[in-house]
Design brief:
The structure holds 3 protein chains of 3 kinds.
Chain A: H1 6-16, E1 21-22, H2 25-29, E2 50-52, H3 57-69, E3 74-77, E4 93-96, E5 103-107, E6 112-115, H4 121-129, E7 133-134, H5 146-152, H6 160-163, E8 170-176, E9 182-185, H7 205-208, E10 220-227, E11 229-230, E12 239-240, E13 247-248, E14 254-260, H8 264-277, E15 282-285, H9 288-295, H10 297-305, H11 307-314, E16 319-325, H12 329-345, E17 349-352, H13 359-368, H14 376-380, E18 382-387, E19 391-392, H15 393-412, E20 426-427, E21 435-436, E22 439-444, H16 451-467, H17 482-488, H18 492-503, H19 518-521, H20 523-529
Parallel strand pairs in A: 2-4, 3-4
Antiparallel strand pairs in A: 1-2, 5-6, 6-10, 7-11, 8-9, 8-10, 12-13, 14-16, 14-17, 15-16, 15-20, 18-22, 19-21
Chain B: H1 8-13, H2 38-43, H3 50-61, H4 69-76, H5 83-89, H6 97-110, H7 116-128, E1 149-150, E2 158-160, H8 164-168, H9 173-185, E3 190-192, H10 202-207, H11 210-227, E4 231-234, H12 237-249, E5 257-260, H13 261-270, E6 282-286, H14 325-332, E7 337-340, H15 358-361, H16 363-379, E8 384-387, H17 390-403, E9 408-411, H18 412-419
Parallel strand pairs in B: 1-3, 2-3, 2-4, 4-5, 6-7, 6-8, 8-9
Helix pairs in contact in B: 3-6, 9-18, 13-14, 16-17
Chain C: H1 2-11, E1 16-17, H2 20-26, E2 40-42, H3 47-60, E3 64-67, E4 86-89, E5 96-100, E6 105-108, H4 114-122, E7 126-128, H5 140-145, E8 163-170, E9 175-177, H6 187-192, H7 208-212, E10 220-231, E11 235-243, H8 246-258, E12 265-269, H9 270-277, E13 287-295, H10 300-318, E14 322-323, E15 325-326, E16 329-330, H11 331-337, E17 354-362, H12 367-380, E18 388-395, E19 400-409, H13 414-433, H14 443-451, H15 454-467
Helix pairs in contact in C: 1-3, 8-10, 12-13, 13-14
The chains are: A alpha+beta, B alpha/beta, C alpha+beta.
The complex binds flavin-adenine dinucleotide and iron/sulfur cluster (2 copies).
Amino acid sequence: MKLLPKDVYRELADALGEENISQEPAVLDGYAWQPAMNLTNQKWIPRPAAVILPATTEEVQTIVRICNQRQVKFKAHSTGWAAWGGPSQEGELQIDLRRMNRILELDEKNKFAVVEPYVCCGQLQSEAMKKGLTCHIIGAGPNTSALASATSAWGYGGTGLSTGYSGRNVLGVEWVLPDGEVLQLGSPGSHAGWFSGDGPGPGLRGIMRGFSGTQGSLGVFTKCAVKLFPWYGPPQPRVEGILLDVETDVPETEKMFFVVAPSFKKYADISYEIGNAEIAYWFCRSPLNAGVDLFMPRAGDRLFESKPLRALLKAFQHLGVALLSSPSKREVEYQEKVLRKITVEHGCILLDLSKAPGYGFWWWLMGVRSIPTALTFRAGGDFLTSYGSPVEYDNAIRQAEVAQECKQKYIDQGYFKDDMSDIGWGGIYEGTANWGHCETAAMFDRRDGQAEGRFKYLEDSARTTIEHTLGLGLSNLPPGAWKVYGPQLHNYHLWEARIKKAFDPNSVGDEQWYVPSIDEIEPKESSSDEQ
Amino acid sequence: MNDLATLKSDMEGCSRCSHCKWVPMAQIKSWRFAKICPSVDRYNFHAYSGGGKLIASNSILEGRSEVTDPVMEIVYRCQLCGACQVSCQAYRDDIDLADVLLALRAKCVTEGYVLPEHLLMIESMKKEDNTLGLLKADRGVWAKDLDLIDINTQKVEVLFHAGCRYSYDEDLRSSVRNWVRLFRNAGVDLGAAGPEESCCGGRAFEMGYQGEMKNFAEDMIGRIKASGAKLLVTPCSDCYYTFKYLYPKNGMDAGLRVLHAVEYADLLIKQGRLKLGKCASLRVTYHDPCHLGRRGEIYKMGWNGVNKLHRPVRFKQMGNLGIFDPPRNVIRSIPGLDLVEMERIREYSWCCGAGGGVLEAFPDFADWTARDRIEEARAAGAEAIVTACPWCERVFKDAIAAGGDPMKVYDVIDLITMSWGG
Amino acid sequence: MAKKEDLARIVGPERVVTEEDALIAYSFDSSFVKGERPECIVKPRGLDEIQRLVKLANDQGFALVPCSSHGPHSRGDTVPTASGSVIVDLSEMKAILRVDQRNKVAMIDPGVTFAELQTEVEKQGLRIEMPLLPRKTKSVVGSLLEREPTTGPKYNWDAIDPLCCLELVFGTGDLFRTGNAAGPGSLEEQWASGQAQKMPMGPAQTDIARLIQGAQGSLGIVTWATIKLELMPALSKGFFVAGQTLDELIAFTYQILWRKFPDTCLILNNVNLAAIAGLDPKDLPPWTLLYSLSGLTHLPEERLTYMEQDLAEIAGEFKVTPRRNLAGVAADRMVDLASRPSEEPYWKFRKRGACQDVFFLTTLDRTPEFIQAMDGLTREFGLTRENLGVYLQPIRHGTGCHLEFNLMYNPNRPEDSARLPALFERASRACLDLGGFFSRPYGLWSELAYAKCPDTVMALRKVKNIFDPRGVMNPGKLCFKKEA
Ligand SMILES: Cc1cc2nc3c(=O)[nH]c(=O)nc-3n(C[C@H](O)[C@H](O)[C@@H](O)COP(=O)(O)OP(=O)(O)OC[C@H]3O[C@@H](n4cnc5c(N)ncnc54)[C@H](O)[C@@H]3O)c2cc1C
Ligand code: SF4
Ligand code: SF4
């Protein structure tokens, strides 16, 4: 086990206090157990040499400066869920940001909040709701950090139709660069408030992240303003229960529907129509068989064994859940009328969930809090995801179709739980924008030691993504993917590598989930650069 | 009880989602009161969370790390409040977090990683049959003049078990006596073991001295059986949890119905056998003691499978069947009291701080945890925090006294007594 | 001259302009930016030529100033600062390469103007979100690369909108495509698979388009872009809300934005409203909110009906009165005017012949502070109220606000011309000091704005060094001045 050099440890401990740093092996292992997205056949990821808990931007800066002076690689995380939040090799310093946990500002009128890394979406949403607002919550759930998703990772969420995508909801940002300098993106950098993240001049958000973030490879984000969105439901709804037992009172102006389309094509059609009609608060594909597996996995096992029941579930394969929401009865009535018209015109079935028993459960868990994705762990104890690039929705639906076929082979071989294969999840985003995403999860029990077969599936899904021109999906982005896709996509990796070099001259930011410095990819170029 | 190694699959199931640090997601109501685990909230390293201890256990089992003094601190700076298990099991079927925490402690003890404060308690239990280091002979003092039926010599229908803290804590003496008066008032003849009453052993078990509980349990069950009691009533939540969960989980059956005093009071009120008077107007909030609430959930027997992924949900120890409504019913039945709820209640209640041996070994941490709860009570607009456990009451009272806080602390029985003009 | 010959070899001799008048025309514009006369103007026709031009500039070390719109220019961003500069005039690259009706997106060359694009997409029932009355010659790509605010905050999710993907040549001469246009797959393969290059993010973990936006041509040259379109409403209805004070309009505006009702939504003072509608400011209330509601493909009348009913209630609550006419002008006409380019003369010049704009970003609730300060300043400089236009444009769903002051003056009156530069500078400084965010720092503003954010400057210089290491792209702009 690699430890930090004693004097480095001492320097860090002196700066932050003994109680905020540890190199106790059992403590460090708390950061080396990252099964989610651990795409190796090892159970553990590399153990950090030490873990440190800063409470302020200045402390983060101190840590990063010491890392630069002493050539120690680091990786920061917010809540630290998944392998990309941990080190890629031994000897690194793990920065756990959980002590930076405040909501610094919640601007009701201008609809944004300024948060620190360890504010989880559930917290932010509950405070925002009190002011008639809500935040975007990624599918992973309200336990994730609003800042992490906005600055450093993807940003897909079921409510994207009205709450967008994390990467596009960012306003001002405070960033401790890998060399220890603080950069404030946009208006906060000019002491003008947090309402804007781009400028003066070029939008430096462009080096902060793209479709995905740099996953902790390019410094540490210490504050960030995220857009908030109108919330028309009650400010503090009465909610009883914790999951399947949830009960709440839903206002009559919050209505949910199952929309069942007869085919992939028709499903895409109604998604375009619903987006264009500006009627729904959100609309997201969630095949019924997926719901069965999430909410009642044991019963699901039995259901899936029965041919007639399988056929019945198949009839609900192209299921989308729509939420209509407004403070006005008139508006919801209009929206419902249009929704009915669209579904009829496209030969779809519309089921009014609001009339179903336990409607509050659906509304609160799925419609508001985005909780169900975590249930994907229930059936097998783990899952992986694939396909799911952000793209025009026709293409997104095509992804579900391709995924269904590809995944079935691996279900047949016993690598994944039988969930009837198509559980393609994802909806349309940003109102009328017509883009969306549809990712396909696959559930399995990691403890059975069959990792290899699952890697093969990931490779297969990545390959078919390219074959069918389905964008760069989630299965195309494991560490080192740039080696394959960079050359296909205008050598984007070289530009990223140049950014990496310019902003992280000592290569102290763990680059596993991004790119290494250009010096490592093209040593020649960098030597000719020095002039 | 489970050996750590038998829980390896549970450990390996952890996805490190950190749900166990928060109240169940559906229940987050504010920024301030969204967290659920005092341990990680106070000490921050992931290892302090429920999931973190799961990982540490796995690491130790695999020989990647060892129990050391710092590890011991992590293990013991945990109230075993069970909140992490509730949040985890809100969506995981295959992880019994609380079992791992208990097994980890047992391992520490086996390997000699013990805290002197805990040892003192164990010694006291061994020597004096109580957790507080006091004389066994004084155990029955609390019941002086109450003329309880002595179960050592007579048969009874209803056995009253006071528990260690109520037996000895003089500040709480009136509470326990009032419980007896209350039940008497409803026409119930109570028996008690007097100085022969002994500790239930639950605390020893939680502290990691799992074997110790067996002796106490056997002793207790023997006495119960001899008394002929059909019902055991205890005002102590800790004991309640031991009877309802720990004994059956460890294959021990007292063979009688067990009710917490508030449950019994609620029942008697419903049966019309008890009538409560009025209180001066007071806005109160109720704190669910962990051991009466989520951990007081009856042990769910009957599933013997291996792969917990296939375990039917009804066998999951989710905490939602704990005792939540009876105390609230009792409070509501007293005119003048206005019961307001805190944000973290029922099975996702924030711990008072006293449990798991924390009060004995890390009083500052217990105090810190209690203060967070008092803050929450204040945020709910309460003038008083009401509980149904002497341990909670103790730690709240101490925290309030130290901080000069105007918040009042009552046991449910205190309110009942007040309603009678007591 | 060798350079001109080399240039001619790339674009053809007829597309290298060296006429004195043309060159002079590029050496200044209506801003106060002083510059150099370019050495020549080249008019490339496509990617290949542009790439070769950039490589030549790198080899020979001369500056390129890209420019997509026909003049007259007014921000100083196309005025060269280096001697021997070459203007890369893209205004004749006018192809509308593709309009995808289903995905509501167009792919266009940099020289396409708003009017040209609008005409084309209208045929497919679509429309483009536009800035407020752009001048007729304004390039769509140019405008959006400059982050000019558009008039419909509802459709504006992020600062980059409605710009989607770009094809561009970096200052290094390398070709790049941003967003999903980068791949995988060729454009044709992407189209065949249902894609339309609408997703602006990426590729992968950077957002190059965001860097190019706001760069004033200093990082690369865009050769085509895709633009997000919206449906042409089946019905549209405009409304005015007149306000004696701005505050009453602001509160109401926040509320209707929260309800996501209006398409067009902006606030003008009487001077600007008069200039656009051809009225006398005296006949108008000090402040007017203009908004439109639309009926879309499904049940358009019913949509308008419920919105109007709801709005009537909201208006009652906020004690304002939406109306369909103001001083004899129909709101519908105003909405229509506000959704197309300005007729000549350009609306800001109508009153006095010239205009200087001071604009920046803030939030809607803070605008009155700036307006008050500006009122004081213009009075101090003897500019009467009737010559100060004010335009408030909520952006990004109302999370921010573009605030624009239009200082209208007569360029032929010596005292006007004499005092304007000083007023402009004082006004700019005052707004900056009050916390105005000059996100698009042209001319003088670049000095002022970048002085406030040295950390941003350091980062931008690193970026510049990556994408234009030899500094051939529009040197001297933004914070890319010659370092002392
Ligand atoms: C089960 C599961 C489901 C998921 N589902 C979705 C989904 O539906 N949609 C979606 O968009 N994503 C999803 N993700 C990925 C998710 O976006 C990221 O895991 C992350 O944003 C979640 O937030 P977090 O608090 O866990 O972040 P963390 O795990 O803390 O961090 C995520 C990444 O960002 C980096 N990072 C975090 N904070 C900082 C910081 N302050 N400074 C620098 N770097 C930082 C970390 O190093 C890490 O690489 C899922 C992940 C998992 C494990
Ligand atoms: S113990 Fe459960 S809740 Fe905690 S991190 Fe592990 S899986 Fe998540
Ligand atoms: S039992 Fe309570 S204190 Fe211990 S880890 Fe779980 S939640 Fe934290």
